[in-house]
């Protein structure tokens, strides 16, 4: 029986062009794949279960790994029907690319700090061997400096950014890549085996993931229903956007026709991606650096109760329990629970961001970071620090009949439900005093 390295050597020779899939797990409308197929008649799709990333995941029942593998199986079925295959390896990408010498490697841009460093290392390794390494924009409509102020500076407020974004948008940027025209350019090979979850150190988790479907009926009503967590009023496409199982260009085409409010949500995603690119300090520091001087309470016991959904505030607890059980949380509820952690409990937004990073199916660094800093008041375009969500008023507005709450907190009306861990009025007064003390000194 051949070793895995021998199999890799057999299928990747100097006449093979590698299409390296990462956050773009689809054959349709894929920028790098289109260019690879157009420019080569011997393209082998490759996915690397990145050991650098996977080794950092503490939960070996991580639903996102299950989703990725299911998406790879879907890709494999499509490729097998075309007489080709997907090569899936479990390795450090740097080590993998040191071990092969293809004709060329094509992939799509990734913007997170680790990915940027990794890709530059891979580029250097391949170029030393004389191997072409080409990357393309795929997961956003506009990237980096494509939407900036007239003086070339990046926007730091969403509304003017979104106006410029919309003014810049035209048919060219929304046009799909017709990859299917060149499907006969995939490398002909027998199906290659895909590692099991056990092979890569994870366990299977029975999870029903959101459908890979653009529900136009939901999009048309989005502006009316999006704030009510008991209603299926959002598309649930965020996990598909995160891993590229749907095309952002296709979604923007639909949004332009159906609902500008939903389009704005897609633009928020690009806004935060742009912020991360231009202001990488936000990964570990507040966008507004003065906010790093806030005297957080960081009570570990209260943080654990927040994580478990046992704060005594029903809307907060419902959100946290939904997150823990499903990997999803409604966007309105995300704002409520984030405000509660940072404002009511005076716990550092980085603690909450890290917890969401472990649990969210749709986790991506830029949006998660941006959302948490917005809630804490420390980010660009942030809510003023003196805006403190009142969980009771939020409940009255968006879940007045407690339908969502009762779904996740069935004991809410019983003696088993805990008393509130903080009192709203007292917590509000404390956070305003604490923020003011830090900002008056450091503004």
UniProtKB/TrEMBL annotation:
GO molecular function: deoxyribodipyrimidine photo-lyase activity
Any coiled-coil regions, as ranges: none
Cofactor(s) annotated in UniProt: (6R)-5,10-methylene-5,6,7,8-tetrahydrofolate; FAD
Domain of life the protein comes from: Bacteria
Residues covered by the Photolyase/cryptochrome alpha/beta domain: 15-141
Enzyme Commission number: 4.1.99.3
Keyword tags: Chromophore, FAD, Flavoprotein, Lyase
Database matches in PROSITE patterns: DNA_PHOTOLYASES_1_1, DNA_PHOTOLYASES_1_2, PHR_CRY_ALPHA_BETA
Family the entry assigns: Belongs to the DNA photolyase family.
Protein name: Cryptochrome/photolyase family protein
Organism ancestry: Bacteria, Pseudomonadati, Bacteroidota, Cytophagia, Cytophagales
